[in-house]
Amino acid sequence: MRIALDAMGGDHAPGAVVEGSLKAAEEWPDAELYLLGHEPLVRPLIGSQPPTNLHLQVVEEWIEADEEPVRAIRRKKGSSIVVGCRMVKEGEMDAFISAGNTGALMAAGTMVTGRLSAIDRPALSPVFPTLDGKGMLVLDVGANPDARPEHLKQYALMGSLYAEKVMGQEKPRVGLLNIGTEEGKGNALTKEAYEEIRRLPVHFVGNVEARDILHGVCDVLVSDGFTGNVLLKNTEGIAKGVFGRLKEELTRNPLTKLAAAILKPGLKRFAQDLDYKEHGGAPLLGLKGPVVKAHGSSDGRAVFNAIGQARRFVERGVIPGISEELQRLERG
């Protein structure tokens, strides 16, 4: 198996990408890992004797986080993101992972790697942490802000297959993000999508409210990209604020510091359950090849987990499975 990584993408690149790749190369010797990066910056981090299954693929360009996505991939055809997506398209690589510019990766995935013929719009699909530690796949969180009911129908099918094959969820429960749980709630989009999804061969549990997400009421949550992105950013902001305030309170005086020492093991487990680093990256579902978006602030552990996720993505035939299911539905 050959997996390419954007060594130049992310807040902590190339260090975090190299660190995670070195660990993954040792953990999975059957995987050939290719770092797409600028040689003067990446080569010293790999070391003089890297694992035999870790390789440097030299690129001279990369896309910065603040660059306009479509313009960047057109101007920088030799950038790590464009090269990685092209290698997947041409079969040189089985999967590509990047923690870089999200918009550029989505644009390159769609324009370079290409969409599955039966998919209208790809979906960016991260795993939201839940209190039970299992996580919930959410799609879409920004790839397609202006979705139509048929797009949400496709998301439900792709998400169910991914949750089953990659996340190991047996008969994954699929929910539709809405403003109420009752049938008939919502706007025109969610009402029509509800009827479309209920006819699919998935375990549809109906409408789901945002307040219930942390409690793991479903395994796959379907949303248009605009609403899903708002949910993502709001959840990240709340988590950051709560943990920040908790730290302030537990270090306020000697008594609270003593309490913090007692509570530390439990708080550490809780923080780990809610840590995005444990869930790898967000697949761009609907493309012809496996492309995974790692979190922009990924550290070495997050990159390592993203590589493991990409391996399962390829090994368990998610994309062929989606294609076969879509063809079966088209045949009636």
TrEMBL record:
<keyword id="KW-1208">Phospholipid metabolism</keyword>
<comment type="similarity">
    <text>Belongs to the PlsX family.</text>
</comment>
<dbReference type="GO" id="GO:0008654">
    <property type="term" value="P:phospholipid biosynthetic process"/>
</dbReference>
<dbReference type="Pfam" id="PF02504">
    <property type="entry name" value="FA_synthesis"/>
</dbReference>
<keyword id="KW-0963">Cytoplasm</keyword>
<dbReference type="GO" id="GO:0043811">
    <property type="term" value="F:phosphate:acyl-[acyl carrier protein] acyltransferase activity"/>
</dbReference>
<keyword id="KW-0443">Lipid metabolism</keyword>
<keyword id="KW-0808">Transferase</keyword>
<keyword id="KW-0444">Lipid biosynthesis</keyword>
<comment type="subunit">
    <text>Homodimer. Probably interacts with PlsY.</text>
</comment>
<keyword id="KW-0012">Acyltransferase</keyword>
<comment type="pathway">
    <text>Lipid metabolism; phospholipid metabolism.</text>
</comment>
<keyword id="KW-0594">Phospholipid biosynthesis</keyword>
<dbReference type="GO" id="GO:0006633">
    <property type="term" value="P:fatty acid biosynthetic process"/>
</dbReference>
<protein>
    <recommendedName>
        <fullName>Phosphate acyltransferase</fullName>
        <ecNumber>2.3.1.274</ecNumber>
    </recommendedName>
</protein>
<dbReference type="GO" id="GO:0005737">
    <property type="term" value="C:cytoplasm"/>
</dbReference>
<dbReference type="InterPro" id="IPR003664">
    <property type="entry name" value="FA_synthesis"/>
</dbReference>
<dbReference type="InterPro" id="IPR012281">
    <property type="entry name" value="Phospholipid_synth_PlsX-like"/>
</dbReference>
<comment type="function">
    <text>Catalyzes the reversible formation of acyl-phosphate (acyl-PO(4)) from acyl-[acyl-carrier-protein] (acyl-ACP). This enzyme utilizes acyl-ACP as fatty acyl donor, but not acyl-CoA.</text>
</comment>
